[in-house]
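RECORD TYPE: inverse folding
INPUT: structure tokens
STRUCTURE:
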């Protein structure tokens, strides 16, 4: 009898401790707990990158590799301005289904003579959902200089294409 009473008491405790609600209301309450402070974006710079003739290496173990030489260009933002150095490249791995992975590696030289390295990784995808082209540049600038802020933030960029420019234009935002 004691075992039955204990089991009944335990069952009542578990039933009262477990919420019995409509699963749809659980989703609403979960959304109510989601963070409200959405990160903001701040324009950092625009790069106008000139490009050389591309070439591809077909049928590698990872897919088709396309290499696009970076031959120069300019960049400018509220706190930075200069030129893009010749010698970098945009390495694209073209997969099936209209998706490509991008890794562009190149250097900048500010108008006051400071060199900055960039490694820009991203995705190009096209399909039923439309066209998607976004990248996340990572900067390596002298930590003790006036461009050290580039080392300590995340950035995103999106290309735009201009009829008056024969390369690619990248608009870069700092995530705040």
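DESIGNED SEQUENCE:
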């Amino acid at each position: 009898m004691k075992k039955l009473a204990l089991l009944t008491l335990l069952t009542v405790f578990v039933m009262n401790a477990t919420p019995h609600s409509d699963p749809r209301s659980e989703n609403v309450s979960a959304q109510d707990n989601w963070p409200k402070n959405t990160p903001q974006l701040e324009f950092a710079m625009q790069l106008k990158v000139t490009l050389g003739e591309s070439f591809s290496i077909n049928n590698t173990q990872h897919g088709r590799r396309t290499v696009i030489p970076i031959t120069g260009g300019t960049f400018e933002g509220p706190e930075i301005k200069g030129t893009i150095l010749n010698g970098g490249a945009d390495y694209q791995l073209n997969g099936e289904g209209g998706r490509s992975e991008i890794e562009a590696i190149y250097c900048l030289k500010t108008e006051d003579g400071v060199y900055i390295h960039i490694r820009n990784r991203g995705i190009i995808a096209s399909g039923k959902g439309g066209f998607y082209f976004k990248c996340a540049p990572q900067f390596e600038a002298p930590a003790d200089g006036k461009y050290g802020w580039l080392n300590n933030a995340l950035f995103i960029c999106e290309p735009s294409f201009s009829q008056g420019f024969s390369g690619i234009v990248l608009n870069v935002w700092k995530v705040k």
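NOTES: The CA atoms of residues 28 and 74 lie 48 Å apart.
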